[in-house]
Amino acid sequence: MENLGKLIRTLRKERKLSQQALAQQYGMSRATISGIENNTLSEIGLRKVEAILNGFGYELTAVPRQSKRPTLDTLKKVDFHG
Fold first, then answer.
1. pLDDT level of residue 80 (50, 70, 90 thresholds)
2. Ranges for the HTH cro/C1-type domain (predicted)?
């Protein structure tokens, strides 16, 4: 969520919108926008974040995390006998 908040802040500033203006556009409080941008809200509805991103021409998607350690299945597939 921290990256989403930073992205929303960057997009908002590029369009020279205040937090208040963005909040009014989506029926939210300025405090909610601030909380999203600063990752200080304990919970935020994904629909709110998705609506803001859609308004900026982005879509919210989920991608698998890149594992830093190999999984057991990956290790089983490795040929150690070269």
1. low
2. 8-63
pLDDT tens readout for residues 28-71: 999 999 999 999 998 888 899 999 999 999 998 887 877 667 66
Residue holding tokens 């021409």?
57
- Residue 69 in any domain: the answer is no
Is the pTM higher than 0.90? Answer: no
Q: d(Cα 79, Cα 62) in Å, to the nearest integer?
A: 32
Determine the structural domain holding residue 17 and report its residue range. Answer: 2-55
Token pair 């990956």 in the structure block, residue: 74
Number of domains, the chain: 1
Burial degree of 37 (CB within 10 A; 0-12, 13-18, 19+): buried
Which residues are CB-contacts of 43 (< 8 A; sequence separation ≥ 6)?
A: none
